[in-house]
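Recall that a protein's primary structure is simply its ordered list of amino acids. Everything else, from secondary elements to tertiary packing, is in principle encoded there. The following example makes that idea concrete.
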Amino acid sequence: MALGRNEIDAASFTAIRLVSGAITLSILLLISNKKDAVTKGGNWRSAFFLFAYAICFSFAYLGLTTATGALILFGCVQMTMIGISISKGERPSRLEWLGLVVALAGLVYLVLPGLTSPPLINAALMAAAGVSWGIYTLRGRGSEDPLADTTGNFVRSVPMIALATLPFLSQIHLSNRGIVLAILSGSVASGIGYTVWYAALKYHTSTRAAVLQLAVPVIAATGGILFLAESADLRLVIAAALILGGIGLTIAGRK
């Protein structure tokens, strides 16, 4: 909504997103009487991958359709997480592999009408965003305090985005709507959302965590129907059934 309608430039969107996330999470920690955790939680490596994901994502979408960006992003997330997990000795069951294939087929079917040949630079940026998010997710699997770790990662990402925005100061474009959307993206969707994600990761293998994220396009499509008056068609129903069915197979593979 923010980038596609030119409400705000990519650098400003990312900066506001990360800063607002850091502020919101810090306030939540203070309310929870965990003042020391603001600086002790998280680490610089995870913060870098969070920053890399956020900035590559924003700039990539300046030249990609929603469908093409989603396919590149989620494809790279799956390959990164599953590839690293296998290299470390994790062996998904046959049912988990089947679930992954079915869910990915559903994703391709969902975004197929909107796919276009992507510009190389934008496609590379979105691929980098996918790899970064995959690594960021894997690094959070052992988190004992998801709120503190997510807060620490967001706080550490602020100086990174501050430096990264310097070359784009002359291209700043802001609107009230764009600023509000960036704040909501950072405070709610990113800050609180990523904390919940870190909390859930301990209960899943890397393969299941990777496949579970394929529910995101289905949730986004449903949100478009409920809040943006977008239409539901048979393609969405079939794609949702494939994706959610694949996720179900992967979870069943645990047993």
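The chain has one domain: 10-252. The mean pLDDT is 85.
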